[in-house]
TrEMBL record:
<dbReference type="InterPro" id="IPR001155">
    <property type="entry name" value="OxRdtase_FMN_N"/>
</dbReference>
<keyword id="KW-0288">FMN</keyword>
<dbReference type="Pfam" id="PF00724">
    <property type="entry name" value="Oxidored_FMN"/>
</dbReference>
<dbReference type="InterPro" id="IPR013785">
    <property type="entry name" value="Aldolase_TIM"/>
</dbReference>
<protein>
    <submittedName>
        <fullName>12-oxophytodienoate reductase 2</fullName>
    </submittedName>
</protein>
<feature type="compositionally biased region" description="Polar residues">
    <location>
        <begin position="119"/>
        <end position="129"/>
    </location>
</feature>
<dbReference type="GO" id="GO:0016629">
    <property type="term" value="F:12-oxophytodienoate reductase activity"/>
</dbReference>
<dbReference type="InterPro" id="IPR045247">
    <property type="entry name" value="Oye-like"/>
</dbReference>
<feature type="region of interest" description="Disordered">
    <location>
        <begin position="119"/>
        <end position="140"/>
    </location>
</feature>
<keyword id="KW-0285">Flavoprotein</keyword>
<keyword id="KW-0521">NADP</keyword>
<keyword id="KW-0560">Oxidoreductase</keyword>
<dbReference type="GO" id="GO:0010181">
    <property type="term" value="F:FMN binding"/>
</dbReference>
<feature type="domain" description="NADH:flavin oxidoreductase/NADH oxidase N-terminal">
    <location>
        <begin position="11"/>
        <end position="338"/>
    </location>
</feature>
<comment type="similarity">
    <text>Belongs to the NADH:flavin oxidoreductase/NADH oxidase family.</text>
</comment>
Length: 366
């Protein structure tokens, strides 16, 4: 087939996101890999991330803690200490050496934690003092509700982490406002039961998120800031009674800060890793948001191409497929078959198995 006959693959078309010239629309979604003992990223992440880098591709690093109270899962990295910043540098350098654009997802888990992860065995902090729903009662320690006068400290942790991420070489940061973690614990009315200026009305529930956005924007510049939101998600009982209104309020408020991108989880991903039929859509938020709009959640090649073609998204983030297919953009371009992901090794801590041993297309054809 000649080049002229070659069908256009919408996912493999260039896109200018702020100052970044992306050569395709296939984004590596943030993926916790639980392979960073003592919250320090390891040299094996150099191979993992550079395997997934193609020139002009956007990669979002796994959720990375903003402080010692931000952690809630085994072996997740942080970016609040000098040691962590130094450890990220060679990983970021490797992605840059292959022409990738690399953002760091900065997070605080809030109440999705237990005292074993917390300094001095203290209770995790949250918007509330209600523990998350769990089938295993020992999984979460009931959280301590943050006082309003403590919130600026947490906002400052996000600000300093964003600065550290830039110092480590990242091109920008993605604020993790999704999936029931600390920011979402303020956003969602099923969790947030506060009666102060951080609870109640939509404006009040969004205050903490927007304070974080403002602080991070002031620290590193709006052209380096994205945010991830999941207004429709409601596993572990963290839903909202009016997700459309919440999503719309947030994107309209975000417009005032001129941030680079908004990354939203599709309503069909009500549960992690499981698709549902739904009449809800992100389209109103896509239309209302002025910056780059990234969608994620259950996408394959066909519906990803359609989302770009129909202008429902600028970029599409892929989690599980990218985890299992280091050369995913190339496979989409060629319409090649995909490796299957192995759920059993998503969160194991081996430095190779289920991490850097998924084959490339050439290796399979060799
Ligand atoms: C192993 C694994 C780890 C994940 N870690 C994160 C994370 O650190 N931050 C985040 O925002 N989402 C995380 N997610 C959600 C993914 O980014 C993505 O939204 C989800 O997998 C749905 O997209 P997919 O259908 O393309 O996999 C994770 C998902 C998986 C499977």
């Amino acid at each position: 087939m000649s080049a002229a006959q070659k069908a256009i693959v919408p996912l493999i078309t260039p896109y200018k996101m702020g100052k970044f010239n992306l050569s395709h629309r296939v984004v590596l979604a943030p993926l916790t890999r639980s392979r960073s003992p003592n919250a320090v990223p390891q040299p094996h992440a150099i191979k993992y991330y550079s395997q997934r880098t193609a020139p002009g591709g956007l990669l979002i690093a796994e959720a990375t803690g903003v402080s010692d109270t931000a952690q809630g899962y085994p072996q997740t990295p942080g970016v609040w200490t000098k040691e962590q910043v130094e450890a990220w540098k060679p990983i970021v350098d490797a992605v840059h050496a292959k022409g990738g654009v690399f953002f760091c997802q900065i997070w605080h888990v809030g109440r999705v934690s237990n005292s074993g992860y917390q300094p001095n065995g203290q209770a995790p902090v949250s918007s509330t003092d209600k523990a998350p729903y769990s089938q295993h009662t020992d999984e979460f320690t009931p959280p301590r509700r943050l006082r309003a006068d403590e919130i600026p400290q947490i906002v400052n942790d996000f600000r300093l982490s964003a600065r550290n991420a830039i110092e480590a070489g990242f091109d920008g940061v993605e604020i993790h406002g999704a999936h029931g973690y600390l920011i979402d614990q303020f956003l969602k009315d099923n969790i947030n039961d506060r009666t102060d200026q951080y609870g109640g009305s939509l404006e009040n529930r969004c205050r903490f998120a927007l304070e974080v956005v403002e602080a991070v924007v002031n620290e590193v510049g709006a052209d380096k800031v994205g945010i991830r939101l999941s207004p429709f998600a409601d596993y572990m009982e963290f839903g909202d009674s009016n997700p459309e209104a919440l999503g719309l309020y947030m994107v309209q408020a975000l417009n005032k800060y001129n941030i680079l991108y908004c990354h939203m989880i599709e309503p069909r991903m009500k549960l992690i890793g499981q698709k549902f039929e739904t009449l809800h859509s992100l389209l109103p938020m896509r239309k209302a948001f002025n910056g780059t709009f990234i969608v994620a959640g259950g996408y394959g090649r066909e519906d990803g191409n359609k989302a770009v073609e129909e202008n429902r998204a600028d970029l599409v983030a892929y989690g599980r497929h990218f985890l299992a297919n280091p050369d995913l953009p190339k496979r989409f371009e060629l319409n090649a078959p995909l490796n299957k992901y192995n759920r059993a090794t998503f969160y194991t801590n081996d430095s190779v198995i289920g991490y850097t041993d998924y084959p490339f297309l050439e290796e399979m054809n060799a």
